[in-house]
Structures are given as structure tokens and as C-alpha cells.
Amino acid sequence: MIPRLHKRGQSFKGACGYILHDAKTTSHDRVLWTNKLNIFSHPDDAWFEMFSVARDQALIKELAGKDARGRKNTRPVLHYTLSWAASDNPSPEHMRETALSSLKALDLLGHQVLMAAHSDKEHLHVHIVVNSIHPDTGLTAPSNTQRSASRGGPKPMSANTGSIVMSGSRTTQNARVSRQNVSATASRSRRRPATRRMPGLPMCR
Q1: What's 57-104 look like in SS3?
Q2: How far, in Å, CA of 62 to CA of 137, rounded?
Q3: Dist CA 33 CA 36 (whole Å)
Q4: Dist CA 124 CA 181 (whole Å)
Q5: Whether pLDDT at 178 is above 80
Q6: How many beta carbons lie within 10 A of that of residue 76, not counting itself?
Q7: Kind and range of the H or E element at 4?
Q8: What is the rounded CA–CA span in Å between residue 82 and residue 7?
Q9: Labelling 64: which of 26, 32, 56, 153 has CA 20 to 30 A away?
Q10: Do 73 and 57 meet the contact criterion of CB atoms below 8 Å apart?
Q11: pLDDT at 81 exceeding the cut of 90
């Protein structure tokens, strides 16, 4: 599994509508399941809760005793995708757990989140839309969180086979794999020939 960050956006209605329905239609055949965090509405209405928090950011800051000054967050929609290889067959539970783990790694569990798993491609994937403005404090997720998401967030994980889905051309993918192999070979060559063991502890390699 590997994450992919989508372009930051302004419209929660557009982002949520996209992940909850089939492309350019109101049907939802490709949607396997949905999940939400810190949202009380039905998934179809989640966008408005997110929009309301972004709209009232200054007021939420004031009520939370935070400094209301500073630049307004005009692109609060954070959207990323977790994709599994076609040879993988992750269960809904595994996909949800992986999505939650990614949110935890990005320190976004306290934010408003809408998830939707899709099956319209060869590989299963789950879309995650996050309001980068915290609903209780009005504060925007730290810039290092945004940079971490742009780099793919947590380290790539896999289900069952250990395969990953990479974005970009096949040539780029092959180059990445080659670099990984070279790096792994170099790492093995730098290993010490023997590892000392503390009494009573098992040997770790």
C-alpha cells in the first residue's frame, strides 16, 4: 500500500461528493463502504459540517481561547488516497485500520474525516477527506503535517503480499524499485558480521 496526496482544495462539497459517488454521476456503485470521524451528520451531509467549521474558523478560535489573528485557511480540504496492489485482497477492516493508522501518524485523528473505499479500478483504494481546521480549536493542522502528507505520510504498508501500487510511469516505477534494491544491497554490505547478545535475550537480526 502507498498513499497519494491530491491537490489541496476549497470545496468540501466537491471532494465529499466525488468520493461518495461514481464519477460524474449520483450513483454509488463503486463505493464499498464509508466511515467518518468527528462528524455527526449522515455521510451525504458531512461536507456541510466541514464547511461550517472552515467558515466559522475565527469564531471557533475565539471561543477556544486561541489567538484569532493570522492568515485565514482558504484551502482547508486535505484529500489523500491509500491504494493496494491488484494482487492484494485487503478486508474492509484492514483498510479501515490502515486509514486510521495513517491519520494517527499525521496527527489528524481529532479532525473531521470522511472515508470512502472504491472498487472501480484494478486495485482497491480508500479516499480520505480531512478538514485541516480542527473543529474544537479552529487551528489549522501544522505545516509539517501538510508536508508529511505531501511526502506520502507514513511509510508504505502492504496487505498480505507486500506489493505496492506506485503512481507515475512504469519507467519511473522501475527506477524506484532499482534504487530500493541498490539501497538494500548496500545496507546489507554494511552490516557487521556478528551481533553481540545480552545474556538472557534472544538474538535479533
Answers
A1: HHHHHHHCCCCCCCCCCCCCEEEEEEECCCCCCCCHHHHHHHHHHHHH
A2: 9
A3: 11
A4: 26
A5: no
A6: 25
A7: strand 2-5
A8: 15
A9: 153
A10: yes
A11: yes
* Measured distance CA(201)–CA(135) in Å, rounded: 47
Residues in the chain: 205
pTM assigned to the model: 0.73
> Which band of pLDDT confidence, cut at 50, 70 and 90, is reported for residue 153?
low
- Residue 182 cell numbers, joined: 541498490
In degrees and rounded to multiples of 5, residue 127 shows phi and psi of: -90, 140
Rounded average pLDDT over 32-57: 97
- Write phi, then psi, for 140 (nearest 5 degrees): -80, 145
Three-state SS at 153: coil
Contacting residues for 173 by C-beta, under 8 A, at least 6 apart: 166
Q: How many CB atoms lie within 10 A of CB 41?
A: 13
For the residues of 19-61, what is the DSSP string, one character each? HHSSTTSS--TTEEEEEEES--S-GGGHHHHHHHHHHTHHHHH
| Burial annotation 47-65 (CB, 10 A radius, 16+ → b, else e) | bebbbebbeebeebbeeee
| Residue 183 burial by Cβ neighbours in a 10 Å radius (0-12, 13-18, 19+) | exposed
pLDDT band at 70 (very low <50, low <70, confident <90, very high): confident
Q: Are 20 and 31 in contact (CB under 8 A)?
A: yes
